[in-house]
Amino acid sequence: MVLKWFPLKGRNCQKTMLILVLALTMSLSYSACRADNRMPDSASSKLPTDLSTKQASSMKIIIKVGDKAVTATLIDSKTTRDFVSLLPLTLTMNDLFGREKFARLPRAISEEGERTKTYEVGDIIYWSPGPDVAIYYRHDEQPIPDPGIIAIGKIDAGVEAFNVPGSINVAVELIQ
User: Fold this and answer.
1) Is 31 helix (H, G, I), strand (E, B) or coil?
2) Is residue 80 within 8 Å of 74, Cβ to Cβ?
3) Three-state SS for 158?
4) Residue 59: closest CA among 21, 87, 38
5) Residues 6+ apart with CB under 8 A from 18
6) More confident residue, 170 or 25
7) Which of 102, 71, 110 minimizes the C-alpha distance to 167?
8) In 135-157, which positions are buried (b, 16+ CB within 10 angstroms) versus exposed (e)?
9) Distance between CA 6 and CA 165 in Å, rounded?
10) Confidence band (pLDDT; 50, 70, 90) for 83?
C-alpha cells in the first residue's frame, strides 16, 4: 500500500523507504525530547523575554550567604534568562580548587551563551556538563577544560563572602 504512494522500483526502493522511516522516527524522537524539556507555563511567565539591552544590563540578583548579601549584575543571554527562570533558588555550594564555589542546578539550562575558557574573580558562570552554576572568588591561572564555561553575570562587590573553607548555603533571588 505504501509503495503506491512512492513509485520507486528495484533495490533503491527499500533503501529510500528505510531512510524515510528513519528520518520520521528521528523527527518524532526529537519532538518528544523537546516537549519533555519545556518549562511549565508558570515558569515561562517569569522568564524575561523582551528585554532591552539597558534592562538586561541592569538585571540583578541577590545572593545571600549566611548573614551577608551580595548583589550581581546579569548579562543578556538566553542562558542567563533560562537561569533566571529557576529563581528563587536555595543551593549548597561546594568548594572547587580553592578558586570557586559551585552547585548543581535543578535542571540543565540553555547552552546558547558564548563559551570561554577564561574567567575573572567575581564571574558567575554556567558549566553545562554539571549542570552547575559557579562563582569564582580567586584566580589560580589555570585554564578551564572543554567544553568551556558560559558567563551569566558578575558579582558587583563582596566576592570575599565566597572565599571561605568548605561548603556554603546560599539563597539566590532576582531583584525586581
Assistant:
1) helix
2) yes
3) coil
4) 87
5) none
6) 170
7) 102
8) bbbeeeeeeeeeeebbbbbbbee
9) 68
10) very high
Would you state the pLDDT for residue 8? 52
Per DSSP, 162 falls in state: G
Beta bridge partners of 100: 96, 136
pTM equals 0.68
Beta bridge partners of 126: 133, 150
- The number of angstroms, rounded, from the C-alpha of 70 to the middle of its chain's C-alpha atoms is 21
Mean pLDDT of 72-93: 96
Cα 18 to the center of its chain, rounded Å: 37
Strand partners, 71: 62
DSSP per-residue string spanning 103-115: EE-SS-----SPE
CA-wise closest residue to 62 among 52, 72, 54, 53: 72
